[in-house]
Specification:
Distance between the termini: 44 Å
Largest sheet: 8 strands, mixed
Number of helices: 10
Low-confidence stretches: none
Helix content: 40-55%
Oligomer: single chain
Structural class: alpha/beta
Order of helices and strands: EHEHEHEHEHHEHHHEEH
CATH topology: Rossmann fold
Shape: globular
Length: 301
């Protein structure tokens, strides 16, 4: 057991399985008190697959840690508020929110229904908003009362959100929105003692095993680069007091690799000084594109 997050109170959403489970366990190993949130639904966000949150709580307690389970729907505003209250009731405070919950409804864009689009955007983007909104209300109130706040929001984007992914238009759009949300949170919330960062992880989960079966296959020996536990050390450090000066960043991580995502940046430009004529645009744009850094390929293309 370590001390990096000793005494810090952490909520991890979607923590019943996969990457979220590993986050919850590693926070506990580093001394945090953990609220394990999971709705217990299938990969597509349907049905009831038992009580995975309860099982993770049992694992944490077996390690000697402190943990409670919560079954809130993170995209329901009232339930998200109750999730925050669970941490306050159980442990007397809250220091870190790790937004991890989500599911997929993979479909080519022309075949995606409105219901599928809404379901995916709801759990990922709205879910991130609802939980962080209630957490920030608590932290802001403490800050305005003159109490010290050293809080963290850690969001979960994706390579699909940074570069796009064929067959995942809704998921890609939601994850791109999460990356942009993180930048705004970091800019607005620093005054209250809150940092906001995001990760774009690549690891073996229920989501990736189906789509990238060969890539995610567990090796017979040696380093398992796709083990979801590889992602958690970065998240736990971001949730610690040591990360106080890091905010507004998106980190790609996989295996033993951590990379700072560069995001959208201003590129080459041309300034005419007056209104363009339509028949002038083509030559100007092609010249700009020759000077610009080539776009990264969309996953799967």
């Amino acid at each position: 057991m370590g001390d990096l997050c000793r005494g810090r109170v952490v909520i991890v959403t979607g923590a019943g399985r996969g990457i979220g489970r590993e986050h919850a366990l590693e926070f506990a190993r580093q001394g945090a008190k953990v609220v394990v949130n999971d709705l217990g639904v299938s990969l597509r966000g349907e049905g009831d697959e038992g009580a995975p949150a309860d099982r993770v709580v049992e694992e944490i307690r077996a390690l000697g840690g402190e943990s409670v389970a919560n079954g809130a729907d993170v995209a329901d505003g009232r339930q998200a508020g109750e999730l925050i209250q669970t941490a306050l009731d159980a442990f007397g405070g809250l220091d870190v929110v790790v937004n991890n919950a989500g599911f997929v409804r993979d479909r080519m864009f022309v075949s995606t229904s409105e219901a599928e689009w809404d379901a995916v955007v709801r759990v990922h983007l709205r879910g991130h908003f609802c939980v962080a909104s209630h957490a920030c209300a608590y932290w802001r109130q403490r800050s305005k009362a003159g109490e010290p706040v050293d809080a963290r929001i850690i969001n979960t984007s994706s390579g699909a959100g940074l570069q796009g992914s064929v067959g995942q238009s809704a998921y890609s759009a939601a994850k791109a929105g999460i990356a942009a949300l993180t930048l705004v949170q970091a800019a607005e919330l620093a005054r209250y003692g809150i940092t906001a960062n995001a990760i774009a992880p690549s690891a073996r989960t229920r989501m990736t095993e189906e789509v990238f079966a060969d890539m995610m296959k567990k090796p017979e020996s040696g380093f398992d680069a796709m083990d979801p536990a590889n992602i958690s050390p970065l998240v736990v450090w971001l949730g610690s007091a040591e990360s106080k000066d890091v905010t507004g960043r998106v980190f790609e991580c996989a295996g033993g690799m951590i990379r700072v995502a560069d995001g959208w940046r201003e590129g080459p430009k041309v300034e005419k000084g007056e209104r363009w004529q339509p028949d002038e645009i083509g030559a100007a744009l092609h010249d700009l594109l020759r000077k610009a850094t080539p776009a990264q390929k969309v996953y799967g293309s």
